[in-house]
Amino acid sequence: MIRSILVGVLCGISAITASPVLRKRDFPDPEPCTGNCSWIHDPNIYKDSNTYYRFSTSGNIAIATAPSLTGPWEYKGALLDNGTKIIVDPHGQDIWAPNIAKIGDMFYAYYSVSTMGSQASQIGVATSSKLDPGTWIDHGSFGLPHSQNYNLIDPAIFQDSDNGPLFLTFGSYWNGIYQTPLETTDLISYSSGGGASLTNIVRNTTVGMDVVEGAIMFKWQTKYYVFFSAGNCCAAPPNLPAPGREYRVMVCRADQVTGPFKDKDGKDCLESGGTLVLGSHGDVYAPGGQGVMVDEGKPVMYYHYVKPSVGYAADQFFFGFNYLDFSSGWPVVV
Ligand SMILES: *[C@@H]1O[C@H](CO)[C@@H](O)[C@H](O)[C@H]1NC(C)=O
Ligand SMILES: *[C@@H]1O[C@H](CO)[C@@H](O)[C@H](O)[C@H]1NC(C)=O
Ligand SMILES: *[C@@H]1O[C@H](CO)[C@@H](O)[C@H](O)[C@H]1NC(C)=O
């Protein structure tokens, strides 16, 4: 009690004295959201004709739909009604960070099963010919090999062009983000060559580094971008990290889908490089778990964030999105 009152007072003082100085960079507020916009972690959106499907962490992968990105979002049910076949911890596991792709006529939902701080994670896959709850078939583990170098979380599939080569990124805490090519024959059960084809593409090598996870690939014009989340995703007062070390969205860019990825200053993203796309600002704290899509011809980044004025609990994470301007060659939130 006493501690939380003290922290409240201290935060109040530092906010008043420090905000004009610390506010190096302003970001626009998230676009409006109506309907079910909270308890959202790691959103992933798939637009199927005129309906937006939003998938998110927990609740056996929550599915909501809306007629536009602004909503109204309506909760529809769970992707995995009966949970997953994967058991990494019978008592504490959760299903995280779904990622949905349509390959041929089939939808694939990649997901991770883990517990906080554990490396015994697994990436699983489910399929459906539709996107709705009740239509998905769980295939359990995708079969990526375990390694001390990475954590099997945060899968994201990327297709270079229609019918072009497929890649899966994942990870990670530990050594950051990995990428592997996939064959269309491999989409339910990984078999393409074991460890040799798993490539580290983003890594923070700084001592006491911020974790790097939640990567997704995106192509805009001729360049390949990897967006990822860095820092502390889920702290609450009085245990907040130093300002700037909370969750934030970073980006690296390459001329080829497999890299090498560099940041805006030319720094190698295997050597701690990364350019900030969206950080905390105003009443937006620790944005991350992002995805990027093209909507009505415009690139959009969506993400989850915390509103300090509301709270920091799991059910107080909000869904947000902003348009991106790539005219400089680098994504700028507008
Ligand atoms: C909103 O969606 C979440 C899952 O994302 C679900 O747990 C919750 O029940 C939904 N709320 C309502 C009012 O439907
Ligand atoms: C979930 O389990 C129930 C009871 O075993 C079963 O009736 C139902 O078909 C299952 N749902 C799916 C999607 O497998
Ligand atoms: C790497 O970690 C350092 C130390 O925590 C941090 O200052 C830097 O922003 C991180 N870089 C990236 C790309 O996240």
From TrEMBL:
Active site: D42 (proton acceptor), E213 (proton donor)
Record pathway: Glycan metabolism; L-arabinan degradation
Top-level taxon in the UniProt lineage: Eukaryota
Enzyme Commission numbers on file: 3.2.1.99
Entry's Gene Ontology molecular function annotations: arabinan endo-1,5-alpha-L-arabinosidase activity
A GO biological process held by the record: arabinan catabolic process
KW Protease (keyword) present: no
Keywords on record: Glycosidase, Hydrolase, Signal
Known catalytic reactions: Endohydrolysis of (1->5)-alpha-arabinofuranosidic linkages in (1->5)-arabinans
Signal sequence region: 1-18
Keyword RNA-binding annotated: no
InterPro entries in the record: GH43_arabinanases (IPR050727), Glyco_hydro_43 (IPR006710), Glyco_hydro_43_endo_a_Ara-ase (IPR016840), Glyco_hydro_beta-prop_sf (IPR023296)
Family: Belongs to the glycosyl hydrolase 43 family.
Name assigned to this protein: Arabinan endo-1,5-alpha-L-arabinosidase
